[in-house]
Design a protein that fits this description.
Layout: E1 5-10, H1 16-25, E2 30-35, H2 47-64, E3 69-72, H3 75-88, E4 93-95, H4 100-106, E5 111-116, H5 118-122, H6 124-133, E6 138-143, H7 146-156, H8 162-172, H9 174-177, E7 185-188, H10 197-203, E8 209-211, H11 214-224, E9 236-240, H12 245-249, H13 251-255, E10 259-264
Parallel strand pairs: 1-2, 1-3, 2-9, 3-4, 5-6, 5-7, 7-8, 9-10
Amino acid sequence: MSVKHILIFDSGVGGLSIFEEIIKKMDQLNCYYLSDNAYFPYGELKEDVLIQRLLLLLSDFIKKYPVDLIVIACNSASTVALQALRENFDIPIVGVVPAIKPACQLTKNNIIGLIATPATIAREYTSLLIHKFASQKKVLSLASTALVKLSERKLSVQSINECVLQQQLRAIFKEWLILPVRPDILVLGCTHFPLLKQEIKTCFGGNIKLVDSGEAIAKRVQQLLPVSGLKKESQHHAFYTKKNRQQCALEHAFKIRKFISFSLFIAS
Protein backbone atom coordinates (compact mmCIF):
# COMPACT_ATOMS: atom_id res chain seq x y z
CA MET A 1 0.00 0.00 0.00
CA SER A 2 1.48 3.35 -1.06
CA VAL A 3 1.90 6.30 1.29
CA LYS A 4 -1.07 8.67 1.16
CA HIS A 5 -0.71 12.42 0.78
CA ILE A 6 -3.32 14.94 1.86
CA LEU A 7 -3.60 18.70 1.57
CA ILE A 8 -4.95 20.68 4.52
CA PHE A 9 -5.99 24.12 3.36
CA ASP A 10 -6.96 27.32 5.20
CA SER A 11 -6.52 31.07 4.92
CA GLY A 12 -4.40 31.00 8.06
CA VAL A 13 -3.24 28.54 10.70
CA GLY A 14 -6.65 27.46 12.00
CA GLY A 15 -6.34 24.25 10.01
CA LEU A 16 -3.61 23.14 12.42
CA SER A 17 -6.42 22.19 14.81
CA ILE A 18 -7.75 19.86 12.10
CA PHE A 19 -4.24 18.57 11.33
CA GLU A 20 -3.75 17.58 14.97
CA GLU A 21 -6.99 15.57 15.04
CA ILE A 22 -6.17 13.80 11.77
CA ILE A 23 -2.65 12.86 12.86
CA LYS A 24 -3.98 11.41 16.13
CA LYS A 25 -5.84 8.84 14.05
CA MET A 26 -3.54 8.52 11.01
CA ASP A 27 0.06 9.26 11.88
CA GLN A 28 1.26 7.51 8.71
CA LEU A 29 -0.09 10.24 6.41
CA ASN A 30 2.10 12.78 4.65
CA CYS A 31 0.51 16.21 4.96
CA TYR A 32 0.86 19.36 2.95
CA TYR A 33 -0.51 22.45 4.67
CA LEU A 34 -1.32 25.49 2.53
CA SER A 35 -2.07 28.78 4.27
CA ASP A 36 -3.48 31.39 1.88
CA ASN A 37 -2.44 34.27 4.09
CA ALA A 38 -2.39 36.62 1.09
CA TYR A 39 -6.20 36.58 1.28
CA PHE A 40 -6.56 36.21 5.06
CA PRO A 41 -9.17 36.29 6.54
CA TYR A 42 -11.59 34.47 4.22
CA GLY A 43 -14.55 35.47 6.35
CA GLU A 44 -14.38 38.99 4.94
CA LEU A 45 -14.29 38.04 1.21
CA LYS A 46 -17.20 38.14 -1.23
CA GLU A 47 -18.44 34.70 -2.26
CA ASP A 48 -17.49 34.93 -5.96
CA VAL A 49 -14.01 36.20 -5.10
CA LEU A 50 -13.46 33.36 -2.63
CA ILE A 51 -14.64 30.65 -5.03
CA GLN A 52 -12.43 31.86 -7.88
CA ARG A 53 -9.44 32.16 -5.55
CA LEU A 54 -9.86 28.60 -4.26
CA LEU A 55 -10.27 27.11 -7.74
CA LEU A 56 -7.11 28.84 -9.00
CA LEU A 57 -4.92 28.22 -5.97
CA LEU A 58 -5.84 24.59 -5.34
CA SER A 59 -5.59 23.70 -9.02
CA ASP A 60 -2.08 25.14 -9.22
CA PHE A 61 -1.01 23.48 -5.98
CA ILE A 62 -2.07 19.93 -6.75
CA LYS A 63 -0.50 20.12 -10.21
CA LYS A 64 2.83 20.59 -8.46
CA TYR A 65 2.10 18.47 -5.39
CA PRO A 66 -0.38 15.68 -6.22
CA VAL A 67 -2.51 14.55 -3.29
CA ASP A 68 -5.07 11.83 -2.55
CA LEU A 69 -7.48 14.06 -0.64
CA ILE A 70 -8.06 17.73 0.20
CA VAL A 71 -9.35 19.01 3.53
CA ILE A 72 -10.85 22.50 3.33
CA ALA A 73 -10.05 23.33 6.96
CA CYS A 74 -12.02 26.56 6.94
CA ASN A 75 -15.71 26.97 7.75
CA SER A 76 -16.06 30.12 5.63
CA ALA A 77 -14.56 28.44 2.56
CA SER A 78 -16.48 25.20 3.10
CA THR A 79 -19.90 26.82 3.40
CA VAL A 80 -19.28 28.86 0.23
CA ALA A 81 -17.15 26.83 -2.15
CA LEU A 82 -17.36 23.13 -1.31
CA GLN A 83 -19.83 22.28 -4.08
CA ALA A 84 -17.85 24.20 -6.72
CA LEU A 85 -14.62 22.53 -5.66
CA ARG A 86 -16.11 19.04 -5.80
CA GLU A 87 -17.42 19.77 -9.29
CA ASN A 88 -13.95 20.80 -10.49
CA PHE A 89 -11.69 18.18 -8.85
CA ASP A 90 -11.78 14.41 -9.16
CA ILE A 91 -10.30 13.61 -5.74
CA PRO A 92 -12.18 13.51 -2.41
CA ILE A 93 -12.68 16.90 -0.78
CA VAL A 94 -13.67 17.12 2.89
CA GLY A 95 -15.07 20.34 4.29
CA VAL A 96 -15.87 21.61 7.77
CA VAL A 97 -19.19 22.96 9.00
CA PRO A 98 -20.25 24.23 12.43
CA ALA A 99 -20.89 21.39 14.89
CA ILE A 100 -24.51 22.30 15.56
CA LYS A 101 -25.79 18.70 15.68
CA PRO A 102 -23.43 17.41 18.42
CA ALA A 103 -23.99 20.62 20.39
CA CYS A 104 -27.73 19.89 20.46
CA GLN A 105 -27.02 16.42 21.84
CA LEU A 106 -24.83 17.80 24.62
CA THR A 107 -26.68 20.88 25.88
CA LYS A 108 -28.43 20.62 29.24
CA ASN A 109 -30.12 24.03 29.36
CA ASN A 110 -30.98 24.14 25.62
CA ILE A 111 -28.99 27.33 25.06
CA ILE A 112 -26.20 27.05 22.49
CA GLY A 113 -23.66 29.70 21.55
CA LEU A 114 -22.32 29.71 17.99
CA ILE A 115 -19.13 31.70 17.46
CA ALA A 116 -17.90 31.97 13.87
CA THR A 117 -16.70 34.43 11.25
CA PRO A 118 -19.20 36.98 9.88
CA ALA A 119 -19.29 35.04 6.60
CA THR A 120 -20.13 31.71 8.25
CA ILE A 121 -22.81 33.29 10.46
CA ALA A 122 -24.41 34.91 7.40
CA ARG A 123 -24.41 31.80 5.18
CA GLU A 124 -27.72 30.16 4.32
CA TYR A 125 -26.00 26.81 4.97
CA THR A 126 -25.51 27.75 8.62
CA SER A 127 -29.15 28.81 8.95
CA LEU A 128 -30.23 25.49 7.48
CA LEU A 129 -28.06 23.57 9.99
CA ILE A 130 -29.66 25.46 12.86
CA HIS A 131 -33.17 24.91 11.46
CA LYS A 132 -32.54 21.20 10.89
CA PHE A 133 -30.88 20.28 14.18
CA ALA A 134 -31.61 23.09 16.65
CA SER A 135 -35.15 24.24 15.95
CA GLN A 136 -36.11 23.35 19.54
CA LYS A 137 -33.06 25.07 21.05
CA LYS A 138 -32.08 28.67 21.61
CA VAL A 139 -29.06 29.43 19.44
CA LEU A 140 -27.10 32.63 20.10
CA SER A 141 -24.78 33.69 17.27
CA LEU A 142 -21.65 35.79 17.58
CA ALA A 143 -19.64 36.86 14.52
CA SER A 144 -15.98 37.64 15.17
CA THR A 145 -12.89 38.14 13.06
CA ALA A 146 -11.10 39.47 16.15
CA LEU A 147 -10.99 35.95 17.58
CA VAL A 148 -9.50 34.63 14.33
CA LYS A 149 -6.73 37.21 14.48
CA LEU A 150 -6.18 36.54 18.18
CA SER A 151 -5.68 32.84 17.41
CA GLU A 152 -3.09 33.70 14.77
CA ARG A 153 -1.36 36.04 17.18
CA LYS A 154 -1.17 33.35 19.85
CA LEU A 155 0.70 31.04 17.47
CA SER A 156 2.93 33.75 16.03
CA VAL A 157 4.57 34.40 19.40
CA GLN A 158 6.01 31.79 21.73
CA SER A 159 4.33 33.35 24.75
CA ILE A 160 1.43 35.74 25.26
CA ASN A 161 0.37 37.75 28.30
CA GLU A 162 -2.51 35.76 29.82
CA CYS A 163 -4.07 38.82 31.47
CA VAL A 164 -4.12 40.76 28.20
CA LEU A 165 -5.50 37.71 26.38
CA GLN A 166 -8.33 37.30 28.90
CA GLN A 167 -9.19 41.01 28.62
CA GLN A 168 -9.52 40.62 24.85
CA LEU A 169 -11.63 37.49 25.17
CA ARG A 170 -13.95 39.12 27.71
CA ALA A 171 -14.45 42.00 25.29
CA ILE A 172 -15.35 39.58 22.48
CA PHE A 173 -17.78 37.55 24.63
CA LYS A 174 -19.12 40.42 26.76
CA GLU A 175 -22.72 40.06 25.47
CA TRP A 176 -22.84 36.44 26.62
CA LEU A 177 -20.90 36.88 29.86
CA ILE A 178 -23.53 39.29 31.26
CA LEU A 179 -26.51 37.04 30.47
CA PRO A 180 -28.46 35.79 33.49
CA VAL A 181 -28.43 32.32 31.88
CA ARG A 182 -25.43 31.66 29.67
CA PRO A 183 -25.07 29.05 26.93
CA ASP A 184 -23.77 25.79 28.36
CA ILE A 185 -22.38 24.70 24.97
CA LEU A 186 -20.22 26.81 22.69
CA VAL A 187 -19.84 25.77 19.05
CA LEU A 188 -16.43 26.78 17.71
CA GLY A 189 -17.49 27.49 14.13
CA CYS A 190 -14.05 28.37 12.84
CA THR A 191 -11.01 26.10 12.78
CA HIS A 192 -8.92 28.84 14.38
CA PHE A 193 -10.94 28.82 17.58
CA PRO A 194 -9.87 25.41 19.00
CA LEU A 195 -6.38 26.91 19.23
CA LEU A 196 -7.80 29.01 22.08
CA LYS A 197 -9.92 26.31 23.74
CA GLN A 198 -8.43 26.52 27.20
CA GLU A 199 -8.39 30.32 27.20
CA ILE A 200 -12.06 30.47 26.17
CA LYS A 201 -13.01 28.02 28.92
CA THR A 202 -11.18 30.19 31.44
CA CYS A 203 -13.03 33.25 30.16
CA PHE A 204 -16.33 31.54 30.99
CA GLY A 205 -15.08 30.37 34.37
CA GLY A 206 -14.76 26.81 33.14
CA ASN A 207 -18.55 26.36 33.18
CA ILE A 208 -19.00 25.63 29.50
CA LYS A 209 -18.42 22.82 27.02
CA LEU A 210 -16.77 23.53 23.69
CA VAL A 211 -17.46 21.54 20.52
CA ASP A 212 -15.80 21.71 17.13
CA SER A 213 -15.59 19.64 13.93
CA GLY A 214 -12.02 18.39 14.26
CA GLU A 215 -12.69 14.81 15.38
CA ALA A 216 -15.53 14.35 12.87
CA ILE A 217 -13.27 15.52 10.03
CA ALA A 218 -10.51 13.14 11.14
CA LYS A 219 -12.96 10.24 11.12
CA ARG A 220 -14.13 11.14 7.62
CA VAL A 221 -10.57 11.30 6.31
CA GLN A 222 -9.89 7.93 7.91
CA GLN A 223 -12.90 6.45 6.09
CA LEU A 224 -11.81 7.83 2.72
CA LEU A 225 -8.09 7.03 3.05
CA PRO A 226 -7.45 3.79 4.93
CA VAL A 227 -3.73 3.59 5.70
CA SER A 228 -3.48 0.74 8.21
CA GLY A 229 -0.28 -1.27 8.05
CA LEU A 230 1.99 1.51 6.87
CA LYS A 231 5.09 1.97 9.03
CA LYS A 232 6.83 4.81 7.20
CA GLU A 233 7.74 7.97 9.10
CA SER A 234 5.53 10.85 7.96
CA GLN A 235 6.84 13.99 6.31
CA HIS A 236 4.84 17.20 6.55
CA HIS A 237 5.43 20.37 4.52
CA ALA A 238 3.82 23.78 5.04
CA PHE A 239 3.33 26.56 2.49
CA TYR A 240 2.06 30.14 2.61
CA THR A 241 1.12 32.57 -0.17
CA LYS A 242 2.53 35.87 1.11
CA LYS A 243 5.77 36.49 2.92
CA ASN A 244 5.42 38.87 5.84
CA ARG A 245 6.70 39.21 9.38
CA GLN A 246 3.77 37.43 10.98
CA GLN A 247 3.91 34.46 8.64
CA CYS A 248 7.62 34.01 9.28
CA ALA A 249 6.93 34.12 13.01
CA LEU A 250 4.35 31.35 12.59
CA GLU A 251 7.06 28.99 11.37
CA HIS A 252 7.58 28.02 15.02
CA ALA A 253 4.01 26.68 15.23
CA PHE A 254 4.67 24.33 12.32
CA LYS A 255 8.10 23.22 13.51
CA ILE A 256 6.81 22.07 16.88
CA ARG A 257 4.21 20.00 15.01
CA LYS A 258 7.04 18.26 13.10
CA PHE A 259 6.69 20.02 9.75
CA ILE A 260 10.04 19.78 8.02
CA SER A 261 9.69 22.76 5.67
CA PHE A 262 7.88 26.09 5.50
CA SER A 263 7.90 27.68 2.02
CA LEU A 264 6.32 30.34 -0.16
CA PHE A 265 3.86 29.14 -2.82
CA ILE A 266 2.67 31.53 -5.52
CA ALA A 267 -0.27 30.67 -7.77
CA SER A 268 0.01 31.46 -11.47
